[in-house]
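1-acyl-sn-glycerol-3-phosphate acyltransferase, Aquibium pacificus. Tokens?
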Amino acid sequence: MIVLRSLAFNIAFYVSLILQMIFWTPFYFISPRHIAWFVPKFWSRSSMWLQTAIVGTKFEITGLENLPEGSFILAPKHQSFWDAIAFFPYLKDPLYILKRELMWIPFFGWYIAKMRMIPVNRGKRSAALKAVTEATRREFARNPRQLIIYPEGTRRAPGAEPSYKWGIVELYAELGIPVVPVAHVAGLYWPRRKFMRYPGTIKARFLPPIPAGLGKEEFMKRLIGQTEAAVDELLIDAAEGPDAPPLPHTALERLEQLGRRPPAPSAA
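Tokens:
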């Protein structure tokens, strides 16, 4: 049944994306940008509703009181496509940094351009970081926005050794704004590079903001420490809960390091 539900959800997810993109196009492009944000936020919520209705995956997002007013950086753990769509509905005017090639995709690229996202040429890293910083400053000068950055850059399996990149440190230092870490283990329920989706409850937590003005080393230490401690708590909670999903070997190894044992053998 999980295989059939996963198939049904994947079909419904992409059909919904295409149909909503077509249906909302006139409203989206005619409306002012702050009103047009309704469309992607509605799509995000409807996609998560589909996951709940078809697969049985619920979600709980806590710590909303930790989101500051005005501009800040949101720094989620990156494990799944779920964390790419789950958090921006809670932000007033989110801002993503993305590969410039995405701007070339018909419809999708036009939708991105409407929201003034920041395209980047990842082939030139030092130049890209400078360009991103300048573009972000220009956006913040126009109105307060919330920059979403994944500190590890690419999706990593739950429980895998952390691999935080230095880019977020430079942006934090240059922009002079607080950073809100986000902990979750969504990769247990919506695994990266896999077809399967699993029932259960995805728990995510907006953590207390790291204030602006810290030294670079201190900031990185706090970012990793706060995020990974919360992720470990959520991993233990998921593994020992009544509806525990299959655990990849990385999660099993991390649980062993933490001195915990899952209640039953889990699939890789």
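The mean pLDDT is 93.
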